[in-house]
Amino acid sequence: MDEALRARWLEHAHRTLSSSGRRAGAARTAIIQVLARDGQCLLTAQELLDRLGPRGSYSSVYRSLDELCSLGLLHRMSGRDGVARYEIADPDRHHHHLIDETSGTAHPFNDDELERVIAAVAVRLGVTLTGHDVVIRGRPS
Amino acid sequence: MDEALRARWLEHAHRTLSSSGRRAGAARTAIIQVLARDGQCLLTAQELLDRLGPRGSYSSVYRSLDELCSLGLLHRMSGRDGVARYEIADPDRHHHHLIDETSGTAHPFNDDELERVIAAVAVRLGVTLTGHDVVIRGRPS
DNA sequence: TTATATGCAAAAGCTTTGCATGGGT
DNA sequence: ACCCATGCAAAGCTTTTGCATATAA
User: Fold this and answer.
1) What confidence tier does A79 reach under pLDDT thresholds 50, 70, 90?
2) I want to staple A131 with a disulfide (CB 3.0 to 4.6 A). Which of A18, A33, A111, B137 is the partner?
3) What DSSP string describes B51-70?
4) pLDDT tier at B80 (50, 70, 90 boundaries)?
């Protein structure tokens, strides 16, 4: 959807990686390209590997995903099935997930009041917020 | 903590299981006892098995956990590490989780306004709510 | 008696890792 | 030249399953 967002993340990822002393190999370069294109919402390692074709392997995929998570460029979450899913971390455009229980599909959404309440809850609980996830499950009404 | 709650859930579980045509074997009986005692918040299958000692096996544990989830007596969620965690489902006393990033420990909490906002979001998105989870991560401030 | 519950051990699926090789800087 | 990145294959972990046996109803 947002082309500018993708380009910005791709650029940011390249810079962060190289300034952290890592080298740009062919596999990792392809991986972050695919992530920039298809990683807006809940991509599995297997799906990523499928889209890479012969340009990647299990080791390069999992190692790169770990690396990107450590650097804060990616978010990892595991769905109910226990399979890890990844999506690109965009500080400006953060979203949550609605799971349609009829179809099993996930839809991203965001809500300002939800963000506000979560911030308030963190204050009430006496913590500095470092992250949060909300999953809503429902059926079309 | 709430002794009455535990007894109520245990009773409810027994009734639901037998009325669904299942038989009460030794393993399953021990499993729901342990769950009633220690399953208020995020117990893994392995932890459950450890507490069962020789009274259970992997198969009985995983099969019973599945069964209890299907009957709505238990909630399954998977943490960031991908390992499934279970807690008893209490319709009256539902909670969310605060993860202290300093220690990695989870603390249950609830918040009425959060519930209200989530209900409002579901309406806005055009779904009938069937469930929801909130995870807040932070450090003591 | 008869279907279900259980335990063992094997299998399955996702993820990680050791090691030799290739490639970036 | 040096060290990091990559790919393969093996190993590791969690979870599931087939099958023979034990047991509840």
Assistant:
1) confident
2) B137
3) HHGGG--HHHHHHHHHHHHH
4) confident
Task: Provide the pLDDT confidence category of residue A69 given band limits of 50, 70 and 90.
Answer: very high
Q: Whole-number mean pLDDT of chain B?
A: 96
Structure token pair of residue B30: 């021990």
Place of tokens 């669904």: B20
Do the Cβ atoms of A126 and B140 come within 8 Å?
A: yes
3-state helix, strand, coil in chain B (%, to 5): 50, 25, 25
Q: How far is A44 from chain B (nearest CA, A)?
A: 13
Helix, coil or strand: residue B116: helix
User: Does residue A126 register a pLDDT over 90?
Assistant: yes
Q: Residues for chain A: how many in total? A: 141
The residues, any chain, with a CB within 8 Å of residue A74's CB and separated by 6 or more, are A35, A39, A65, A68, A86, A87, A88, A89
Which residues in chain B have their CB less than 8 angstroms from residue A128's CB?
138-141
Query: What is the greatest pairwise CA distance in chain A?
Result: 51
